[in-house]
Structures are given as structure tokens and as C-alpha cells.
Amino acid sequence: MVVAASVVVAAGSVAGVLSAFDARRGPDRAERPAVPASPRLAPLPAVPSAPPSVTEPASPTPVTSAPATPSPRPSPSRTREKRERTAPVSARLYRHPDSQVLDWVRAHAGDPRQAVIASRIADQPAAVWFADYAPDTLTARVAAVTSGGAALGRVPVLVPYAIPGRDCGGHSQGGAPGLDAYDAWIDRFADGLGSGEVIVVLEPDSVAQAECLSPGERADRFASLARAGRVLKAANPRARVYFDAGHSGWNAPGKQAAWLRQAGAASPASSDGIFSNVSNFHATADEVAYDRRVLDALGGPAGLGAVIDTSRNGNGAPPDGMWCDPAGRKLGRAPTLSTGEDRIDAYLWVKLPGESDGCKGRPGTFTASYAYELASS
Question: What residues are annotated to the active site?
Fold first, then answer.
């Protein structure tokens, strides 16, 4: 990403990165269960540390692996997460059975880190990314995830990540060859959504990182995103679609809201709200406050809400601005559809903890040492 971008690592494949991490539910916000507090992760059991000599095995290569991009100026977090206490796995969110972390857990039963990684990361639902431009197989791959969730009565979280000019030509560059091709790709994506509840985190960084585009290019991209939201919601009225709000250390709320409005995020025909902090580290409290300011500036129906990526933000953003697998980070709040926070619809794990930004392992690949560090901090 270019300036203060949310470090996105699209290690998604057909089955994608772990599974639905959080997500919203159906189109009726009144259906959200009310709870007094959001789930938190339990204290770690005593387990042996991995010996320094352990060599990381190569992780299976996903269909798509878009490397991370730097975030040159993330702001330090103003608040810290309180100590995590409980970690119930959400019964409402879908954990897809194919992911790099699950592959590692199954193959390394004797590794001293396996129990911690399995219980604190692999058991949690996380998002499934679709970051490759492969239209011929796209509908079937999306349908495999949505039908799997529907069969269990659970909500999958999907991340389409193929906007042309993705990452402004940076490390995660790629996507469809043009907006016409992207529109057709979204049509095929929508054909796989089925009729069950599903959450769509639409194109991370596509709005917040639009500064690199000319005014005309930006207008064209935003029109295509607005169309994408309409197509997705028309294909499945129970789909909940969220638009890119960057994160609390990036654009000012008013500027971000103005762009979001142009991209269709204020229209109920396209949008259910916004998402923030994807693949980044900003503290949940900072994101809650920021997202509410963006929603206030955005306008639109009162029912618009926000979802927040809490996968790696347990210690907030590193004060030195490090973006690539920074040390001292830890898992954030467990994925849930019940946050107990007004206008905050879900805490999700969009970025799968343990998939490297490119410093502790190859970009987008699962790195056990990094996963264990996050889970045991």
C-alpha cells in the first residue's frame, strides 16, 4: 500500500484464508443478539516454547497470494486492549475447512506450538479471500464457501480483492485487467453467493488508497464499486456488504466519508456500512471511535454499521510504524457478531493471524513462528 495503507496480505485461495471470522448476519439489524460484552480470548495454557532450531516447513501455496504492502505512517494507538478473558468460538460464523493454518495444524501434531496455534487461531472462524483473477472458476469457488456455511447454518465472510490497479502498483498489485473485466468478475462472484446469510468485505484499500488515482480514474473506480455493491445485494438480499474505510491512522473521517459516499457506501441498495483495520494493528477502541465518526459524516440510513478486523490488534499499532510482521503484537478480540457496541456490527478476523506480511516468511504464507508469537503474547 502506499501512504498509511492498511497492510493487506491477500493470501486467499478458493477455500481461502481460514474462514468467516466475524461477520454480520442477515439484512435485518434488529436480529442481532444483544450481549453485555464482546468475547475475549482466554488466558493461554502452559505450553512449551518452540525451540529456536525449529525450521519452518513450507506452507501449501494458495491459489492466490498477494504480498503485503507497507504502511509508512500508521499512527500509534492511543489505547490498549484490556487483558483477554474468554474465547468462545462464535456459533454464528463459519470456519471454512481449508486454510493454511489448518493444514499446518493437521501436519504438525508433535510440534510443541501446535496446541496453542490450534486452539487460539485455527479454531476461530476467519475470512475467505478471493484475490485471483480467475473468472472461469470463481462462481464455483464462492459457492463452495457459501454453501458450506449454509449447510451448517453459519455465516461466511468473503473478501473479493480484484479491483484493477490494486495497491496502486505496490506489493499487492494485481486484480482484473480493467473495470469492465472487474464488473464481469463481480457478476460471477455474485452468482456464487447463494441465498443464505453472508458478509462481504468489499475490496480492502480500494477507497482509502484512492489518492494515487487521477480524479477521473477515481470516479470510475467508485462507480464500479457502487455497482458491485448493488450486484451483490441484488443477487442475495441476505448478503451484507461493507465498504473500505481504511483505519484510524489513515484518512480523516470527513475525507474518507466523502469518498465512500461516491463509492455507494451510503446507499442501502449497495451497502450495509463500512469496514476498517483490515490487516492492520490499530486498537479496537480507536477503530470504534473512528468508524462512528466516518458513519456520522457518511450519512445514509441509520442502519448502516461497521465491522472491524481485530485479528492482530491486541496490543495496538506499533509505535515505530513498523508494518511488516511487527514484533510485540498479539491476537485481538475473538470474532463475533455481538459486539455490545452501538453501530459496530462485528469484530472479524479478516487477516488470518500467522500469515506473513513478508518479513517472518514469504508474503501471504502461514508462518508457525509468527502465529505462535501472536497467540502466546
Answer: 167, 205, 357
